[in-house]
Specification:
This protein has about 800 residues and is an alpha/beta fold. The chain is about 50% helix and about 15% strand. The protein folds into two domains: about 325 residues, 3-Layer(aba) Sandwich (Rossmann fold); about 270 residues, Glycogen Phosphorylase B (Rossmann fold), CATH 3.40.50. The structure holds ligand 26Q.
Amino acid sequence: MLRIDKKTFKHDYIEKFREMHGKDLSEGTDNNRYEALGSLIRDYVVEKWIRTNKCYNRTGEKQVYYFSMEFLLGRLLGNTLLNLGIRDTCKEGLNELGIDLETLEDLEQDQGLGNGGLGRLAACFLDSMASLNIPGHGCGIRYKYGFFEQKIINGSQVEAPDNWLRDGNVWEIKKPDKAQIVKFGGEVRVESLNGELKFTHMNYDPVLAVPYDIPVAGYENNVVNTLRLWSAEPVNNEFDFSSFNRGDYLKAIEYKNSVEAISQVLYPDDSLYEGKRLRLKQQYFFVSAGLQSIIKHHKKQGIDIRNLDEKMAIHINDTHPVLAIPELMRILMDEEGIGWDDAWRITINTISYTNHTILAEALEKWPIDMFKKLLPRIYMIVEEINRRFCEDLWNRYIGQWDKISKMAIISDGYVKMAHLAVVGSHSVNGVAKLHTEILKKQEMANFYYMYPHKFNNKTNGITHRRWLIKSNPELTNLLKETIGRSWIKHPTDMENFERFAEDKAVQQKLYEIKRNNKIHLANIIAEQQGITINPDSIFDVQVKRIHAYKRQTLNCLRIMELYNRLTENPDLNIVPRTFIFAGKAAPGYYLAKKTIELITAVGDKINNDKRIKDKLKVVFLENYRVSLAESIIPAAELSEQISTTTKEASGTSNMKFMMNGAITIATLDGANIEIRDEVGDDNIVIFGLTEREVLDYYQKGGYSAWNTCQGDERIKRVTNDLINGCYSYDREKFKTIYEHLLTYNDEFFVLKDFDSYLKAQDRVDSLYRDFSKWQSMSIINIAHSGIFSSDRTIQEYATGIWGSGYLYKNL
Ligand code: 26Q
């Protein structure tokens, strides 16, 4: 914990402000004030950072490196203050200076270097590693433009660049002296020297990788770990304008642009995987830079390179950083002179891999030609890994050519990254129990049969520091008042809260807290969208990336059905509801963009229909991001987790909602199953096809969307409403959605689950009418959410995969 008293803080702050802005505090803008505060807090952190690093060097404990293309951190100020244990001091100190801390916190741009779940998971993991005293660091790319900014214009998504660095970034420190060279293209010369092969990479295009370090402070434990993000720059001597003639000058500019393109922008996760050369470049760029710097660091610490696997663990977040496997082999063999077998042992022992999806169309594979040209030496190594692996397969599965070619790393003209990840690592994990079982039984069955010891489950988690303590301070206080503080360091102690499930006073308090959070969100909605919503209606929320498998359409069709019932019978007795949606569609994903248009069109119609007396409101909040999620989730009462069973690997927003007291309506998919197991059937609302039923349809066929529609008047009517002008004068506007559901026999079973979903929603309505029942459900959900803290997840990774952590108790 940082020991700073209010007086010192105020003094430091005033000084910092003057030094930074060359004027007095009273003359500054809020932005000036934010910058000075951020910069001061960074200074505070730096001291602990230096101490932490010295300590790591002194004790030589195993270091964990989490490699990820995405880190979706959101804002850092509030959480850093919280973890340093000085948020209250600063808040009071600023107050005395006439400054509101929250106003300044709201000025910080989100660091949005991720698409969604996978990137946010990486951010939660960094927070948990630091908080659990684990020497764990992030390695990724410093994209100049993060995930695009979403605007809703005339009901449709429009993308704008996310220029998050425009006003600078107080949290990063550029480290030019730690820059690395990454080599692309060219060719490899192979020579035989004293009977050994020597590989020399020639005529390559060099790129300078420059690191920017961001401190990751643990919760009240003095640990500060590092997130290192790499930025691509031209190598200096290649870009000396004065020595170029005109032709070379243009070439030099081209070179500069092509280099800078590497860390220019984050790729959006598209519905269909496309092998874009620039993305492959990004992947090798950060993996190579990261590994080079890690190995140099360890050598400087005097460790024997042959024991590298005892001193570091490298985790790869999905296959995106899988080139870490051949790159580590390259460094060990070509630069350190180690033979293949030893290099392979070190590599396998070092690398572990998490799979985040079973959607076959999302699996990464690269055309051989592209791969070979861009990364000639890495390709040779992958070829050799593949050759040895296939030799193994030939010995095991004599004559089974089909199986061998299915499992090969290189086949059908492609390099298959998931296969490389399984073969080149010692651990492969899924992100929820069901997901891991499906990997073992279906998607990776062949690999599981061969390497059963590699496969394991690590159910995802979320950091309760950001998603409860920081974002829901009133609920945090209620927990402290009722069960004390132990849950903050031991989140499963939240179970003690269950004792209050039937306590009327606590129920009432919980209700009031939720209502305050709802009013706060209602104000944001009024300000942003100009829509007035009723804080006494049920806040029914689905916020996540827009994707067919997540089935926002199911939710939307059900709203349309309810609306039909209400227009026929305006006195229909339902609890008023506000449906809240938010989420981004990949720019090239037509159906997802149409889904947004449908939601906004349904909203326009319903919100302006006087007949239904404000019983329903539909809101689509623009530009979903971490900071917006922090306002939405504490206000939610119903959490929509309605993906087609088997498709959502885990989900993590489901855990955030639960921790904030929302009741979940869900299919038995991903981590929803584990949430159900925790709270019991009475405290969650489950509907829909089971895993078995879904897999049977996929394997044996037999689903007819058309017949399902014909057999249900409600479905007939709502699907017809998509094309009869009900929600748009342009009858073609939602035709794609209609066709996807009916003509193409929707592979996500929206219509099949419709009836069961409606019944589940009716159960929600009647549960909500019973005040005491609803509050007690909410309490039970909160009480059982501790297991979904990413602290639990990280503890499992550390002991089960990385073999790290338990030292550094007393920094
Ligand atoms: C791939 C190729 C080209 C461009 C983009 C991509 C790409 C980028 C991001 C592919 C996938 C992603 C992200 C996937 C993701 O977020 N998956 C989610 O991971 C969460 C954390 O484990 C799970 O909870 C979710 O269920 C899963 O969907």
